[in-house]
Design brief:
The protein is of the alpha/beta class. It contains nine helices and 13 strands.
Length: 316
């Protein structure tokens, strides 16, 4: 049984707790937050002890870092250096800059620990299926793609502490759309050319909307459009792929629906599935890999660095 500690008891911690509860072979052992009231509330709800300093966490197998985005590299590195935990899960984004990512990986490696970046959208069944089709050559050469993430985060959201700040948030591509930026990188490899233009009409320190054009090492070109400024509520998440031997469009929460399928010699797979919340079920799969010690299912250092490089190129 793998014992898990959660550092950070904010919004995403509920999804991690749900996933841990759903997966055999892992259990929540302790939670941590510098806000003692918040830590105590989550601890009582989960039926586990709490601390307010991660240095006081001992005897667990994995610590999951769920703190504000810009604090991820500092907290993950300090946990590696000051606790006895062998594995450190780090929520997205791994860092806001490539320099921070290099430093984080260096410090974790020097401490003899293993960093496990959270890229749960890679475990989405349809995303994994499309990746296999691309890698197997079933779609032929990929010509173009379009990825749209049109979401809503209201003004109240950006009044919460670190949200919307340049120091800790990073903007829409880091905090909301990072898993979809990672997805196109996952599909097509390193970016070789890109241009991103951002808008900050809501008066935030970071971009609330970004439109970007990218060319990847595979030859694929495409666009990523992301916003948190759609009216009233989340509107759309979609991904369209145009390839030599087929055209595919995915949509729905976390891209869980095949909207269009026209692939040479292949009927549409029966893989549509329903998701009951915005984060999807990828965290469940991630903790299943942890329970089974499938460390190979997490991104390599080079892969993680390449993804941060893409986000930084498009956001700054």
């Amino acid at each position: 049984m793998k014992k898990i500690a959660l550092v950070g008891c904010g919004r995403i911690s509920k999804r991690h707790r749900e996933a841990i509860d759903a997966v055999e072979g892992v259990e929540l052992a302790i939670v941590c937050d510098i806000n003692e009231e918040r830590a105590k509330f989550i601890a009582e709800e989960a039926g586990v002890p709490y601390v307010t300093d991660f240095r006081d966490i001992k005897g667990v197998d994995v610590i999951s870092v769920l703190t504000p985005s810009g604090m991820h590299p500092r907290h993950a590195a300090e946990i590696a250096e000051t606790t006895d935990v062998p594995y450190i899960v780090c929520e997205k984004p791994l860092s806001l800059t490539l320099r921070e990512a290099y430093e984080l990986l260096r410090r974790v490696d020097k401490a003899g620990k293993t960093l496990l970046p959270v890229y749960q959208n890679r475990y989405n069944p349809l995303v994994a299926y499309i990746k296999k089709l691309i890698d197997d050559g079933a779609l032929g050469k990929v010509h173009q793609f379009v990825c749209n993430i049109f979401w809503n985060r209201n003004d109240a959201y950006f009044q919460i502490g670190w949200h919307g700040t340049k120091e800790l948030d990073g903007g829409v591509l880091y905090t909301q759309a990072s898993h979809y930026v990672d997805m196109v990188h996952f599909f097509f490899g390193d970016v070789v050319e890109s241009k991103g233009i951002g808008g900050d009409l809501r008066g935030l320190e970071v971009y609330d909307s970004v439109s970007a054009v990218c060319k990847f090492s595979s030859g694929a070109v495409g666009t990523i459009n992301a916003t948190v400024s759609t009216f009233n509520k989340n509107y759309l998440t979609e991904f369209t792929l145009i390839a030599e031997k087929g055209t595919v469009r995915l949509s729905g929460t976390n891209l869980n629906t095949i909207d269009f399928w026209d692939v040479d010699g292949m009927t549409k797979p029966e893989m549509d599935f329903t998701i009951d919340h915005v984060y999807g079920k990828g965290h469940d799969t991630m903790y299943e890999y942890i329970a089974g010690e499938r460390w190979d299912m997490f991104p390599s250092h080079d892969d993680a660095l390449s993804g941060i490089r893409l986000m930084e190129m498009l956001s700054y």
